[in-house]
Specification:
Elements lengths: L1 E6 L2 H10 L7 E6 L9 E2 L7 H10 L4 E4 L2 H6 L1 H7 L4 E2 L3 H8 L1 H11 L6 E4 L2 H11 L3 E5 L8 E4 L2 H12 L11 E5 L4 E9 L4 E3 L4 E2 L2 E3 L3 E4 L4 E4 L6 H21 L6 E10 L2 E8 L7 H7 L5 H9 L13 E9 L15 H5 L4 E5 L2 E4 L2 E4 L3 E9 L2 H14 L5 E2 L6 H5 L1
Parallel strand pairs: 1-2, 1-4, 2-3, 4-5
Antiparallel strand pairs: 6-9, 7-8, 7-9, 10-11, 10-16, 12-15, 13-14, 15-18, 16-17, 18-22, 18-23, 19-22, 20-21
Helix pairs in contact: 1-10, 5-6, 6-9, 7-8
């Protein structure tokens, strides 16, 4: 069968890498892809929001399954378009992808169906938002309502910062249309975990546990990014926490979406805050996390293609997933200055040396090719991902790979996976 993966980041490189291993697959295309996907698939120069172009390509090239990586085409209704044309596609329909596209919708859904989450308010005007900040206290979390590429969340540590953030979003257009409405919520204490599951709208199959590292600097300091690294499994997700997440978060959400007339099919990602035996939901994403996707797919023993097909066809019953006992760690190598202003166009050196290491894959995220060289073209540039017999072993292998790669101004965290070792 022929498979089309939509997207150009590290998550999509990991999907292409895993899908291409399936004995069911003849050819993989990636649109638009990157230099990493180009090594194992045929890149197609189509943007992720070019729904007409992607649909025409799929029809002309006998695509048997399309897999959507990023949130933007989901929110634009690509799944609806493909299904209306009789094409199998993995991802959430537009009316279900709103669970990520609108944080206000997501919070209201959780409140209505008893999914544990932080106390919150939704605002379009500055003054009521400031009153809520004063009532709730500091620190406080302020989120742009719409899609902001993983950067629309600010944890304000002072009243002045909170008020300035609200003014920036609502009046100053800091996040454009995404910030024309804000969700403000109480700050939750605990340890974050990423909980992902495949669902056909009824059946739910959890993936292995994982943990992302959002802050740009070691020790969870500095502004939030799209993710500076991830590991799996995450010891914070104990069997009891897993059971609670499945029953109180995933089950209630999938059932709630169905009750709202928005049946959810695809992969559902819940960002969780774990504190003792309690679980609260920080957010939902309508797609694989990036960088969580990279270590999760390295650990997935089963062929992913039958799972993706079963979801696309709307029936996961009888499907199961096997996982390697090994741990996996992904360290994101970013451009200096990210998530603020950063430089692009720097030559990346040492990729061949990293590729020669055992149980290690360098997933490309923000890279491009110029004059036969691989250069930086984004904020998060590479996801160096390794398997190991233990978390420590996987950490050592990942950083061995990181040590072989360099470019001017490269930045990465040096403590990815450290929380797992503390447990």
């Amino acid at each position: 069968m022929n498979v089309l993966v939509i997207g150009s980041g590290g998550r999509e490189h990991a999907l292409v890498w895993k899908i291409s291993q399936s004995p069911l697959v003849t050819k993989v295309y990636c649109a638009p892809g990157n230099p990493g996907t180009g090594l194992i698939a045929e890149n197609v120069p189509l943007k992720v929001d070019d729904l007409d172009g992607l649909l025409a390509f799929a029809r002309a090239n006998g695509i048997d399954l399309t897999v959507v990586g990023p949130e933007l085409p989901l929110s634009l209704g690509i799944v609806d378009r493909f299904e209306e044309n009789g094409l199998a596609i993995f991802g959430a329909r537009q009316n279900a992808a709103i669970i990520e596209a609108s944080k206000a919708f997501s919070k209201d859904l959780m409140h209505k169906y008893g999914v544990p989450t932080a106390a919150y308010g939704v605002f379009t005007e500055v003054e009521p938002a400031v009153a809520f900040i004063d009532k709730t206290g500091i620190p406080i979390v302020i989120k742009a309502d719409g899609l902001a590429a993983g950067k629309g969340v600010i944890i304000a540590q002072s009243r002045d910062e909170a008020v300035a953030t609200v003014r920036d979003m609502l009046s100053g257009n800091a996040f454009g249309a995404a910030g024309s409405r804000v969700v403000i919520e109480e700050f939750l204490v605990g340890e974050e975990a990423s909980f992902l599951a495949f669902t056909d709208g009824k059946n739910i199959i959890p993936l292995a546990s994982a943990q992302d590292h959002k802050a740009v600097y070691d020790g969870d300091q500095g502004p939030n990014t799209g993710g500076m690294g991830a590991y799996s499994p995450a010891p914070v997700v104990t069997p009891a926490i897993h059971e609670k997440a499945m029953a109180e978060v995933m089950r209630r959400t999938v059932d709630g979406m169905a009750a709202e007339g928005r049946p959810y099919r695809g992969v559902l990602y819940a960002g969780l805050m774990v504190n003792g035996g309690e679980v609260k939901t920080l957010e939902f994403n309508a797609r694989f996390g990036d960088p969580e996707c990279q270590p999760l797919l390295m650990r997935m023993k089963s062929d992913i293609v039958p799972v993706l097909l079963a979801v696309a066809r709307g029936d996961l019953s009888g499907v199961s997933i096997e996982w390697h006992d090994k741990a996996a760690v992904c360290v994101v190598m970013a451009a200096g200055g990210y998530p603020g202003d950063y430089r692009t166009g720097d030559e990346i050196r040492g990729l061949d040396g990293a590729a020669a290491l055992d149980d290690l894959v360098v997933f490309h995220a923000g890279t491009a090719e110029a004059d036969g060289k691989i250069i930086t073209s984004g904020g998060r540039v590479l996801g160096v991902t390794a398997l190991g017999s233990t978390v420590q072993d996987a950490i050592d292998r990942a950083y061995q790979g990181v040590a072989t790669i360099t470019w001017d101004g490269v930045h990465f965290r040096r403590d990815i996976g450290a929380k797992a070792l503390k447990r």
